[in-house]
């Protein structure tokens, strides 16, 4: 991450150039030089260190307003080093990212910006991906869209179905699915499992906001006994959901197991539960998970318009336990390469924090009118 001293140095350079230019203009106009400092009690007259400190407490909207007060503050607020600092400072605090708001920058902050980075508009990028700005500028439906929604409300909508899979269902100390099942005040169960799938999957209907019903087909890698043994012994098992290359020890899948083709073709979207705990292990797991998502979203199996919700899940939130933030999960899973709509939502298995926000996004992008 960029250090504060690097940002102050960049701002000081902008300030010096600004007042040098002003002094040169004044010398050309009346032959008299002016001081490099602003006189009088003014925000402009503070040291650059103090000006930067003040800016760190301002919201993005307030920073933009500050930039509109004068030519000087416009130059300071437009500094790409300043906004790169804010981006890398705030990104770990954001709880979600999607296909429209994923940062188009490297996720490692260097000590200085090279020439290409200095040309990149970090301010515009921050305002595009910041959740507060996204919520403020969310698209408002036009009149004809409201009329269309009204008529669609008379059309019966079948219960949408989603397939849930991923290592976060099995590797975490706290079971996400068990918490969901025993938390009717958060997500009431509207129907008991109707079908068992070879002992590693079943479908359960839930009710959302007391009006929307949807079904989740939970697909595990193997049966409960083998899953629990693998979790306790930290074993990496091949998932029965997929087909692998014969006589190979690789866990990179080639295709979906034909047994689950019909299930995956029928669903309206997918929920992938990722293990976002920092102790999750090596990078090899990310490669396997990328392949699983690509295989499940294969256009030959279903339309690319079907969304995928990635629950970036940890067992519990504590002061001494860190999580891999959602933008990094999106990068590791290479979600930007997908043609499908996608979202990564931070979720906690113990409290289900973030789950309803993810479900809300999934239903909206599956064509369910909220």
TrEMBL record:
Give the compositionally biased regions (Polar residues). Answer: 29-41
Q: Which InterPro entries match?
A: F-box-like_dom_sf, F-box_dom, FBXO4, P-loop_NTPase
Q: Which SUPFAM superfamilies match?
A: F-box domain
One family name in Pfam for this protein: F-box-like
Q: Which residue range or ranges hold the F-box domain?
A: 46-86
Region labeled Disordered — which residues?
Answer: 22-41
Q: What is this protein called?
A: F-box only protein 4
**Species, as recorded:** Labeo rohita (Indian major carp)
């Amino acid at each position: 991450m960029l250090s504060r001293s690097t940002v102050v140095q960049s701002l000081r350079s902008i300030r010096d150039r600004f007042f040098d230019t002003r002094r040169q203009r004044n010398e050309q106009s009346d032959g008299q030089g002016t001081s490099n400092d602003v006189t009088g009690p003014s925000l402009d007259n503070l040291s650059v260190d103090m000006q930067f400190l003040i800016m760190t407490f301002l919201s993005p909207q307030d920073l933009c307003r500050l930039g509109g007060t004068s030519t000087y503050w416009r130059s300071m607020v437009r500094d790409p080093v300043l906004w790169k600092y804010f981006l890398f400072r705030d990104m770990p605090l954001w709880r979600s990212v999607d296909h429209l708001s994923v940062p188009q920058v490297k996720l490692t902050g260097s000590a200085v910006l090279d020439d290409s980075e200095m040309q990149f508009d970090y301010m515009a990028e921050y305002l595009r991906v910041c959740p507060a700005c996204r919520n403020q500028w969310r698209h408002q439906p036009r009149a004809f869209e409201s009329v269309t929604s009204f008529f669609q409300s008379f059309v019966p909508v079948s219960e949408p179905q989603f397939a849930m899979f991923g290592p976060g269902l099995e590797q975490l100390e706290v079971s996400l699915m068990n918490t969901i099942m025993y938390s009717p005040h958060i997500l009431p169960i509207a129907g008991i499992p109707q079908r068992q799938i070879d002992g590693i999957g079943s479908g359960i209907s839930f009710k959302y906001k007391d009006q929307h019903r949807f079904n989740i087909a939970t697909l595990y890698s193997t049966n409960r006994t083998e899953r629990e043994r693998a979790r306790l012994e930290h074993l990496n098992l091949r998932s029965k959901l997929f087909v692998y290359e014969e006589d190979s020890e690789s866990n990179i899948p080639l295709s979906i197991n034909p047994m689950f083709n019909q299930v995956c073709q029928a669903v309206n979207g997918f929920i992938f539960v990722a293990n976002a705990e920092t102790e999750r292990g090596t990078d090899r797991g990310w490669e396997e998970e990328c392949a699983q998502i690509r295989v499940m979203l294969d256009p030959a199996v279903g339309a690319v318009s079907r969304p995928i919700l990635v629950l970036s899940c940890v067992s519990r939130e504590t002061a001494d336990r860190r999580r891999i933030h959602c933008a990094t999960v999106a990068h590791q899973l290479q979600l930007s390469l997908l043609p499908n709509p996608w979202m990564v939502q931070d979720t906690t298995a113990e409290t289900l924090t973030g789950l309803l926000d993810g479900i809300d996004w999934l239903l909206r992008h599956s064509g369910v009118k909220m």
